[in-house]
Design brief:
Length: about 80
């Protein structure tokens, strides 16, 4: 079991111990990555050239984030848990 899988098991277990009914526990990394690229593509299609320079730095920071997602060093998870107490 990898590091991120162990973290998921711990989070899920902790939520259960706190009497949360975990309805969803999923690795959202691939979907998040897709949302990031779709968002940037939508923006670039409407981009006025004057704004390009200002956005380059932001694009660079997202390149590092996506690299971290691709390497497995960064993960995005989604939990939906309910506690009726």
């Amino acid at each position: 079991m990898g590091h991120s899988q162990c973290a998921d098991v711990r989070i899920y277990g902790t939520l259960n111990e706190l009497n949360f009914d975990v309805r969803v526990a999923e690795d959202y990394t691939k979907k998040y990555r897709s949302v990031v690229f779709t968002g940037w593509l939508s923006l670039l299609l409407e981009l006025v050239p004057d704004f390009a320079v200002a956005l380059i730095k932001e694009c660079e920071s997202w390149i590092y984030r996506i690299s971290a997602l691709d390497s497995g060093g960064l993960k995005v998870s989604r939990y939906h848990a309910i506690n009726d107490e």
